[in-house]
From TrEMBL, chain A:
Signal peptide interval: none
Protein's gene: nifT
Cited InterPro entries: NifT, NifT/FixU_barrel-like_dom_sf
Coiled-coil regions, chain positions: none
Protein name in UniProt: Nitrogen fixation protein NifT
NCBIfam families reported for this sequence: nifT_nitrog
Organism encoding this protein: Methylomonas aurea
From TrEMBL, chain B:
Protein name as catalogued: Nitrogenase protein alpha chain
EC number(s) per entry: 1.18.6.1
Any one Gene Ontology molecular-function term assigned to this protein's record: nitrogenase activity
Entry-linked PANTHER family: NITROGENASE MOLYBDENUM-IRON PROTEIN ALPHA CHAIN
Length: 73, 493
């Protein structure tokens, strides 16, 4: 369960950053991305997948959240 | 030598790796790469931030160096105790030339060395009492200090001293900030983790001191300069430009900085990051907690300065945008004259760099402004995000080397034959004896500042002074010279 820092890049894309792993990637897709439900599976720019417990309401970005790493199929 | 092609560079890497045993070769191969600008992500071509293997010569430092030497050390009105045996503090004392204003020993302490000087009995019985005594003595001898940081050396972690408890107690006693920093040298693979630990210590022990206190009057133009250590006066040369364009620099982290400035930083509107590697952690934290955006900037060479000033100004209103243009315009004659003078003397020269933090990519623009070309670059302790940012700055098919070993660096230089090598003190004399002009790019070879427009003039002068120094023609002994000349004569005849 790495903690992930989320921030918006200048072009509006979400950045997914894990300090311990030096991983800084853009979020390509997010399962739930509405005002009252946010989270689920995320696909990163490098093809790896993580999972956020769905949150409601959506968190204020920038923030730090716990994510689970999903096995790549 | 003409620019190398991708195949030639790859062949060079393979050739240099040839001498290693199989296992070491496999490991080192991951750290050497040929630059490919089409890549978005560096992890496709280079591995970084891994432990250096025993048996190769590495130039890296330790976590203590990253915390005490880089991040905490320049904070001038605090006293940084090198907690442990005397050597770590004494041998690194005042080496980074972080300039500051103040009276050393009275209200500023930058170039002094404070240590708890561990002896055998402190290792056996623990050093907490000694630390407490040390803090009392400091308070008595230097009453004008504004705080203390306890920079752990290796033994502290090994014997399990509770420096946090001592710090809390003593902070109450003396009524000033006392920060325990767990930066024992054995942590992490290089000084890079020391930066992170130091950032976290600032976050936990200093940064929130003035939360909820609005007595500090703010303006919409408040910024903080983060990750500029004022080496040779760099931060001052940067600060003048920012102030000229209408911004108010509230804090300098940490060159010529004070603890009060650090406590006030959460009140600023924008954080400006120069050294991304050593201070991005705190910028990310402030973005999250205080909602302060941050941007990276680069104050080496007029092209990058203009770019950075405009990017900074884009975060503010029109008065600042006009200010940025005014600043660029004002210095134009000055830097054009510098380029006109030095470019003809430096045009087409090739440079190889091997430095730390931000410079392997940041100074490329300054060299290009002088018509020079950077043909190889590498970091001592970078992470992948640094290489992500480097790929775009470097030319195609140039050489990238991470945590390069002494042997590899020498071989690369012998093969590529650059006109100038920029690295640190440990490399300096090797290359000078090989007859290659060399600049120390960690401490600017006791010159500087190199930041800002004023710094660029000094940078250009220094590069010219080194490259076109007549001594390089005297490197070869006369009888050898006569031989090679007579051979040339024979060849012609």
């Amino acid at each position: 369960m790495p903690s992930v820092m989320l921030r918006k890049r200048e072009d509006g894309k979400l950045l997914f950053y894990i300090a311990k792993k030096d991983l800084e990637e853009t979020i390509e897709s997010l399962e739930f991305d509405t005002a009252d439900k946010w989270g689920g599976e995320v696909l990163l720019g490098d093809g790896s997948k993580y999972y956020f417990e769905p949150l409601s309401p959506a968190p204020k970005i920038p923030t730090t959240l716990q994510a689970k790493r999903l096995a790549e199929e | 030598m003409a620019a190398m092609t991708r195949e030639e560079t790859e062949a060079l890497i393979a050739e240099v790796l040839e001498v290693y045993p199989e296992k070491a070769k496999k490991d080192r191969a991951k750290h050497l790469a040929v630059n490919d600008q089409s890549l978005e992500k560096s992890n496709k071509c280079i591995t970084s931030n891994r432990k250096s293997l025993p048996g190769v010569m590495t130039i890296r430092g330790c976590a203590y160096a990253g915390s005490k030497g880089v991040v905490w050390g320049p904070i001038k009105d605090m006293i940084h105790i090198s907690h442990g045996p005397v050597g770590c503090g004494q041998y690194s004392r005042a080496g980074r030339r972080n300039y500051y204003v103040g009276t050393t020993g009275v209200n500023t302490f930058g170039t002094m060395n404070f240590t708890s000087d561990f002896q055998e009995k402190d290792i056996v019985f623990g050093g907490d009492k000694k630390l407490a005594k040390c803090i009392d003595e400091i308070e008595a001898l230097f009453p004008l200090h504004k705080g203390i940081s306890v920079q752990s050396e290796c033994p502290i972690g090994l014997i399990g001293d509770d420096i946090e408890a001592v710090s809390k107690n003593k902070a109450k006693d003396i009524g000033k900030t006392v920060v325990p920093v767990r930066c024992e040298g054995f942590r992490g693979v290089s000084q890079s983790l020391g930066h992170h630990i130091a950032n976290d210590a600032i976050r936990d022990w200093v940064l929130d001191k003035r939360d909820g206190d609005d007595s500090f009057p703010t303006t919409p133009y408040d910024v903080a300069v983060i990750g500029d250590y004022n080496i040779g006066g760099d931060a001052w040369a940067s600060r003048t430009l920012l102030e000229e364009m209408g911004l108010r620099v509230v804090a300098q982290w940490s060159g010529d900085g004070t603890i009060a400035e650090i406590e006030k930083t959460p009140k600023v509107k924008l954080n400006l990051i120069h050294c991304y590697r050593s201070m991005n952690y705190i910028a990310r934290h402030m973005e999250e907690k205080y909602n302060i955006p941050w941007i990276e900037y680069n104050f080496f060479g007029p092209t990058k300065i203009a770019e950075s000033l405009r990017r900074i100004a884009a975060h503010f209103d029109d008065t600042i945008k006009e200010g940025a243009e005014r600043v660029i315009e004002r210095y134009k004659a000055e830097y054009d004259a510098v380029i006109a003078k030095y470019k003809p003397r430096l045009q087409g020269k090739k440079v190889m760099l091997y430095i730390g933090g931000l410079r392997p990519r940041h100074v490329i623009g300054a060299y290009e402004d002088l018509g020079m070309e950077v043909v190889g670059t590498g970091y001592e302790f970078a992470h992948n995000d640094d290489y992500d940012r480097t790929i775009k700055e470097m030319g195609n098919a140039t050489l990238l080397y991470d945590d390069v070993t002494g042997y590899e660096f020498e071989e690369f230089v012998k093969k590529i034959k650059p006109d100038l090598v920029g690295s640190g003190i440990k490399e300096k004399y090797i290359f000078q004896k090989m007859g290659i002009p060399f600049r120390q790019m960690h401490s600017w070879d006791y010159s500087g500042p190199y930041h800002g427009y004023d710094g660029f003039a000094i940078f250009a002068r220094d590069m010219d002074m080194t490259l076109n120094n007549p001594c390089w023609k005297q490197i070869q002994v006369p009888w050898k010279k006569a031989e090679s000349e007579s051979e040339a004569v024979k060849a012609v005849a």
